[in-house]
Write a structure and sequence with these properties.
about 675 residues, mainly alpha, about 65% helix
């Protein structure tokens, strides 16, 4: 009898349970599949920025079973690419977490390529996704038969059209395909996680709108098929926020620990951002948790250590020091301005005789590694040399009484723990100096209004930015130009002021006394501030396109927008206006910009700046309407604000479409049916 019960308890989890754990509900699955299909539909197989060569080669060598770059399968020339690093005469890549994430996708593509050509493999996968989407939509709307017929016709049509115009994809591009496809899958998870996060505190219609907007009305859609780290970091960050929020909403301590797992994995992709994410979450978590017992904290610490272990293991395997990520190693390549403490200081230690060129399929590529490039060349500067000689702790010992003893004891304990790590003192002090300098430099930028304007408000030609790498085209957008929906955040000071006036001092509560939703708001705001400040000193810069270094704050900002009371009310009260307004904006906006391109024949920079002006106007209009709705709600109808939101979101989608199909023509489309349409548009305009 006991044996029978044991066997019953050891049953594998059902597909339904796994699906609920991953997607939450059928809407979540539908949203994720829909975003994957959309992002894949405009996927170009090629290198958009030169940094991707290094990451692709990293994946190739990881797939071969080693971390060193010995097989250069993708190259601008026969030499190195920006972002390569060297240790003891051996070349290494970076963003190893991103490479390992793409590894299972590469294995699947390799296995599938044994049965079908890569082009037909992708076409078959997209068709199956379309069938899954229509089936789930039919179940959700209780019209299974109708959508089964529609899905079958659409699937057959896509197969016939795609096969009739198909061109071959070289098998040597499988690693690049895996890298791009993994980023697409992760980008779709961003919309899914935003939906599940908002669904914890708001009604279903608001959550659905937020999930769709995360993919189609933010720059996430722009970077979905471009294998840069920014989307991965943004999605892992919103995953950590979701787990934090769920732990507060349900009291489930497991999600508190999983939040740290998401944060720790960021260090495997980019150690600098991982450090700030872990530190910020820990600060807010400890301040807002109802209990901080040693057992609970021990579980959190263990999970964090496990999440950091891949990064530590990779670092140790490369340099022998788990605290030294590849970005702290000497750089090899053009420019060598890395986003690391040693970018300029170490770049001359060892260089390859063969230099990378600016040719190839690049649009204003990240010469010199990209992640640290700034308009004033401040990548190294005071960062690497400010090790402080270990004097910071000794100076604090001069304080009086028990405070001095306590500080000195803590400093001694930290020094003892640091001493257990291999060769850590210099590394740790350099990292701390780098972190402090970036924070202080970012805070200093807050006093430079013109510079902030070029980052957040209006782009155009910015004095001091090197446009030569972009063929002297002003293709950069500011934060508001990239995502007009953020204009709604103009109501935050008004709402905060009204709350303080109405409730007085009671509006300011201790973090631990806040409701779960407010604690999540606090974490979102803190993360947005931190990840903005640490990058301000490096902005604006060429090839930032949609201010890509600030990509994580777009999802955070979107959550802030839907949490605004006027916005939530209008979405809930006027969902039809929101949906129809969005569709009309996308349709009419597409026609309008096609006409502008056809009649005016603008250069690339002029076309992008036309979008910038229109998007900024939409952001300004949204700011005015949401503030008016906040101050005089009786005079501003919900449909007005819903319509303004729809226009702001739709214009972003229009830009994403034009950027993918018309403006940035690198590589070949993954699906030849889209290529035919793009060629027709190129011929007509």
């Amino acid at each position: 009898m006991k044996l029978e019960r044991a066997r019953q308890n050891l049953q594998w989890p059902s597909i339904e349970r796994v699906g609920r754990a991953l997607f939450g509900d059928r809407i979540g699955l539908l949203l994720w599949v829909g975003l994957v299909l959309t992002f894949a539909g405009f996927w170009r197989v090629g290198f958009f920025l030169t940094d991707s060569y290094t990451v692709a080669n990293t994946l190739v060598n990881v797939a071969d079973g080693h971390l060193a770059i010995t097989n250069v399968q993708y190259s601008l020339t026969l030499g190195t690419q920006p972002g390569l690093h060297q240790y003891e005469g051996v070349l290494y890549g970076r963003n190893y977490g991103q490479a390992f994430l793409a590894l299972p996708v590469l294995w699947l593509l390799d296995a599938g390529a044994m049965v079908a050509a890569p082009r037909f493999l992708l076409l078959g996968g997209w068709t199956l996704g379309l069938l899954l989407f229509t089936r789930q939509l039919g179940i959700l709307l209780d019209r299974r038969d109708t959508f089964a017929i529609v899905g079958g016709i659409a699937a057959v049509a896509s197969l016939v059209i795609g096969a009739s115009v198909a061109t071959p994809i070289d098998d040597g591009n499988l690693a690049l395909l895996a890298l791009q496809l993994s980023t697409i899958l992760v980008a779709a998870c961003g919309g899914l996680l935003v939906y599940r996060l908002v669904d914890l505190f708001e009604n279903g219609s608001i959550a659905i709108a937020a999930g769709v907007a995360a993919g189609l009305a933010t720059p996430i859609g722009f970077w979905a098929s471009l294998p840069k780290r920014h989307v991965i970091v943004a999605v892992l960050m919103i995953g950590a926020v979701y787990c934090f929020a769920r732990s507060r909403k349900t009291g489930d301590r497991r999600f508190r620990a999983v939040a740290y797992a998401f944060a720790g994995l960021v260090a495997w992709v980019h150690a600098f951002e991982g450090f700030f994410l872990v530190a910020t979450i820990a600060s807010v978590d400890l301040a807002t948790a109802r209990t901080n017992g040693w057992r609970e904290l021990a579980v959190v610490g263990l999970v964090l250590l496990l999440a950091l272990s891949p990064a530590f293991a990779t670092n140790a395997a490369i340099s022998g020091n788990p605290m030294q990520p590849p970005r702290l190693l000497p750089g090899v390549g053009v420019g060598d301005v890395e986003f690391s403490p040693q970018g300029e200081l170490r770049s001359g230690d060892a260089r390859s005789d063969v230099r990378t060129s600016g040719g190839g399929e690049i649009l204003g590529g990240d010469a010199g590694g990209g992640d640290g490039e700034s308009k004033s060349g401040e990548a190294g500067g005071a960062n690497g040399g400010s090790a402080n000689d270990g004097s910071g702790g000794s100076q604090e010992n001069h304080g009086p009484g028990i405070v001095a003893w306590l500080v000195g004891s803590l400093a001694g304990l930290a020094a003892a723990l640091i001493g257990l790590l291999p060769q850590p003192p210099d590394t740790v002090m350099v990292i701390l100096g780098f972190v402090i300098s970036n924070v202080t430099d970012g805070i200093a930028v807050l006093g430079q209004s013109e510079r902030l304007g070029h980052i957040f408000v209006r782009s155009g030609y910015i004095h001091g930015v090197d446009y030569a790498v972009n063929q002297f085209e002003a293709i950069e957008l500011t934060v508001l130009e990239s995502m007009p929906l953020l204009g709604a955040l103009a109501a935050v000071p008004v709402l905060a002021g009204r709350a303080i006036r109405r409730r007085g001092r009671s509006a300011l509560q201790w973090p631990r006394a806040l409701a779960p939703a407010r604690q999540t708001d606090l974490l979102i705001a803190t993360l947005a501030i931190v990840f903005t400040v640490i990058y301000l000193s490096r902005l604006p810069v060429y090839s930032m396109l949609t201010v890509r270094y600030l990509t994580p704050i777009y999802l955070l900002g979107l959550y802030g927008v839907v949490r605004l009371t006027p916005v939530g009310d209008c979405v809930a009260l006027a969902p039809r206006v929101l949906g129809l307004g969005y569709a009309a904006t996308v349709g009419l906006g597409t026609i309008g910009f096609l006409a502008a391109v056809f009649l005016l024949e603008p250069a690339l920079g002029e076309a992008v700046q036309l979008h910038a002006i229109v998007n900024l106007s939409a952001a300004g209009a949204l700011a005015l309407v949401v503030i008016a709705r906040t101050l005089v709600p009786d005079r501003i109808r919900p449909s007005w604000l819903a319509g303004t939101l729809a226009v702001a979101a739709g214009l972003t989608t229009v830009y994403l479409l034009f950027a993918a199909i018309v403006y940035f023509t690198y590589g070949n489309f993954a699906f030849d049916g889209v290529r035919v349409i793009a060629d027709m548009l190129a011929t007509s305009v």
